[in-house]
Amino acid sequence: xxxxxxxxxxxxxxxxxxxxxxxxxxxxxxxxxxxxxxxxxxxxxxxxxxxxxxxxxxxxxxxxxxxxxxxxxxxxxxxxxxxxxxxxxxxxxxxxxxxxxxxxxxxxxxxxxxxxxxxxxxxxxxxxxxxxxxxxxxxxxxxxxxxxxxxxxxxxxxxxxxxxxxxxxxxxxxxxxxxxxxxxxxxxxxxxxxxxxxxxxxxxxxxxxxxxxxxxxxxxxxxxxxxxxxxxxxxxxxxxxxxxxxxxxxxxxxxxxxxxxxxxxxxxxxxxxxxxxxxxxxxxxxxxxxxxxxxxxxxxxxxxxxxxxxxxxxxxxxxxxxxxxxxxxxxxxxxxxxxxxxxxxxxxxxxxxxxxxxxxxxxxxxxxxxxxxxxxxxxxxxxxxxxxxxxxxxxxxxxxxxxxxxxxxxxxxxxxxxxxxxxxxxxxxxxxxxxxxxxxxxxxxxxxxxxxxxxxxxxxxxxxxxxxxxxxxxxxxxxxxxxxxxxxxxxxxxxxxxxxxxxxxxxxxxxxxxxxxx
Length: 518
Prior knowledge:
By secondary structure, the protein is mainly alpha-helical. The protein has one domain: MFS general substrate transporter like domains (Growth Hormone, Chain: A, Up-down Bundle). It is 69% helix and 0% strand. It has helices at 3-10, 37-53, 57-82, 84-91, 98-119, 122-141, 146-172, 182-185, 188-205, 227-249, 255-260, 264-277, 286-291, 307-320, 325-358, 368-381, 384-392, 399-417, 424-451, 458-473, 476-482, 489-504. α16 (368-381) packs across α19 (424-451) and α18 (399-417) runs antiparallel to α22 (489-504). The radius of gyration is 24 Å and the shape is globular.
């Protein structure tokens, strides 16, 4: 059955009597399969079966559960910045390194869990990283010294980075091809997490009864400066609740991971169970999967499970990302895009306020309540970025690559125009628009990255992209320290970088709106 017909069934059209016909493998990104014919045949069968089953409540549940991870990462990722001033006052720190510590954790977590998920499975990391993130977030809030705060913050980032590198891949690998646009759409959860972060910060960081310390040189009793602790506790509690829901649902391994690792019977039974539960057609036969042969991509098996075997398997997966000229071009552009974005966007946030202040502009709110109120508004409205991105991808000849270009170029234009801002109202308006345009780009890039990576090294590649992004961001404080903020030159350079990566979107060799991920 054609993928379009499975959509019609979702709309109430009777397709039970129609015959399922395998879609030829030219619709799949076979160039990513490294010449492994067994893998090519299995991915073609899995994709055909997912298209035949169509979108179900199972997939909707997966979207919500995977979206929890996006929301949790953005929630806790912002928590440390919303309480940073209170932390510096509490522990008498004139030079804060909290951002660097959480980035180190995110970097290491993305690398470790990304490689692990390709070798031993997505399920373990997907079900446990959120839970561990919440536990260490509670410990961050209970820290009695600055050193302990940094250690627990880094560990929180470690598990948070592991979760972020897996969510999109897990959701993608269970979707029918005509619904993969949802991987972009569910980036809306990122905006939701940020909005919640600022709402909670507003509740606990504004009232004076919980924030009695205002001078770093004065003695600060923790008893009168507990707003930052309450903020961490509540945010950690939200993530804990989400992680318990994820654990309770006991989601399965993805069918593509099972097929890659020659667990054909498990993949077959999983897909069959979905089809039977939701009364969908199911033409796949177990003997067809087995007849495809043995996939030889994962060398880490029951006979080879030592540390060295794991490292060899991890290295093999990294090497596979550069398996052909087309794959080298593809992954090289991904790394370039993520690294430039990691430098440009944070730098813009550093340079812009300093430049505007140097020009005498009065763009900020005059009270803490106003500051948090502006942040809630701008982050809440950024929700429309992924929504617009998902809509743009349906326009003929735009697709993923065109949407990446539109998001990047529009962000460049609005960020450059931002230098003309002189009032609070102008600042708020440009902030909202800039957030929406950059989230058009972000939403697509987060989804596009796992879409154009092969199933046998998908989370490894995604993890490396997130790592290079965080690594590049670590240089932001150093660049900001030496740059001249009296001129708009650094801002234009940052905006130009975002425009460049938008144009790079057109140079990517794969278009998932026309081909299926493998």
